[in-house]
Write a structure and sequence with these properties.
With 159 residues, the chain is an alpha+beta fold. Helix content is 37%, strand content 19%. The chain is built from 6 helices and 4 strands, in the order H-H-H-E-H-E-E-H-E-H. The protein has a 4-stranded antiparallel beta sheet with strand order 2-3-1-4. The two termini are 15 Å apart.
């Protein structure tokens, strides 16, 4: 794993402030050479510092105004198979493996309550899914963010 230093943090903060910025733009903003920015960005990418990139597109503009979170309880030995099946459901926009009572937390986009019911039935039909519990999101109050962590800086790793 790449060690992120102060210059990397400044570069990442500038990139968060202007995700469309070019290497030249970042270099001008930070007072660095374009070659330095390009080399650091390449190193950060190779070190998997960046998550997969997708512009955040509102599912509502595609006809899916509702967001729901479905807790999925599964037979553990079938986890890989279940995850593969879930990944074929277009309305599944994200899924996390969880500790605690539920095994998976699946975020889905749906057009209405009937659509949510259909999606939930589709998930329940996956071999190895025991049950689900569904909660409808009332609104996103704090969107995904990383800037506060960048501003805090790199935390030392426990020895």
């Amino acid at each position: 794993m790449h060690h992120v230093d102060k210059v990397d943090l400044e570069l990442l903060r500038a990139l968060c402030a202007d995700p469309d910025s070019t290497f030249v733009g970042l270099a001008q903003t930070l007072g660095l050479s374009r070659n330095t920015v390009q080399a650091r960005m390449s190193r950060l990418a190779e070190s998997k510092v960046f998550l997969a990139f997708d512009r955040r597109i509102s599912p509502a503009v595609l006809g899916y105004p509702l967001t729901a979170f479905i807790e999925v309880f599964i037979v553990q030995k079938r986890a890989a198979e279940i995850i593969a099946q879930l990944s074929t459901i277009p309305e599944v926009v994200q899924a996390h493996g969880m500790s605690g009572a539920a095994d998976l937390l699946v975020q889905v986009a749906c057009s209405d309550a009937e659509d949510l019911f259909r999606i939930d039935r589709t998930i329940l039909a996956c071999e190895g899914v025991e049950r689900t519990e569904t909660a409808l999101a009332m609104g996103e109050l704090i969107p995904f963010r990383i800037v506060p962590l960048l501003e805090r800086g790199v935390r030392p790793r426990p020895a």
